[in-house]
Amino acid sequence: MRAIFETGFYYLYLIFIIGLGIYLLIKKKSIYFAIACIILGLGDAFHLIPRAIGLYTKTLDNPSATLALYLGVGKLVTSITMTVFYALLYLFIYKRINKTRNIYVDLVVASLIIARITLLCYPQNQWTTNGNDLYWGIYRNIPFVLLGILVVFLLFKYFRKEKYLSTMWIAVILSFIFYLLVVLLAGTYSWVGMMMLPKTICYMYIGVLGYLAAKKNKKQI
């Protein structure tokens, strides 16, 4: 039952978020947001599909070497694409408010992205064996969390009174909470991996808000 429900939901999410991004791209609405959704969905597919296989074959908690490789590399890919997602969300914010970005903030964002991806590349992360080193899980997520804090601050500052985007900052915070629970505890308690479900719901909610805001706005942003 868990395999059917959880994997079904993941496939629904992938179709939804990628489809939403493609739709916005075709309509030339919120280009940065559209690309962000597509990249997020494609990256998450690398992690969620192997996870679905593990659930259906009942080998998720004790995967074969091949499945462990797919799960680990999938986590690496989705870690990178999540970072790109928030970088694009940062660009979307400034594009929507039609303000010139601060060069110093740009440098901070670029530095955090470089630091994040550099830490992801270290072999201590044990991607090829789907390892769960707690300390490296913390190290590689420090710049990611800082990037998330910056995006939350900008969302709250500029959109807290906007009809459709006023709650996006809350959804981002919640997604980080669920994500960090998985990072910190999934290695000890496998069931914590189910926190990916509410995290995914947060991303779908973010997608809906972006879609509604883009539909309302007649100009291309």
Please provide a written account of the structure.
The protein has helices at residues 2-26, 31-56, 65-97, 103-120, 134-139, 142-159, 168-185, 196-216. By secondary structure, it is mostly helical. Helix 1 (2-26) packs antiparallel against helix 2 (31-56), helix 4 (103-120) runs antiparallel to helix 6 (142-159) and helix 6 runs antiparallel to helix 7. The model has no long low-confidence stretch (mean pLDDT 90).
Q: Helix and strand layout, with pairings?
A:
Layout: H1 2-26, H2 31-56, H3 65-97, H4 103-120, H5 134-139, H6 142-159, H7 168-185, H8 196-216
Helix pairs in contact: 1-2, 1-8, 2-3, 3-4, 3-6, 4-6, 6-7, 7-8
Distance between the termini: 43 Å
Classified by CATH, the class is: Mainly Alpha
* Strand coverage percent: under 5%
The CATH topology: Rhopdopsin 7-helix transmembrane proteins
Mean pLDDT: 90
**General form:** globular
**H and E string:** HHHHHHHH
Helix content: over 70%
Give the structure's gist in a few sentences:
By secondary structure, this protein is mainly α.
Key features of this structure:
mainly alpha; Rhopdopsin 7-helix transmembrane proteins; 221 residues
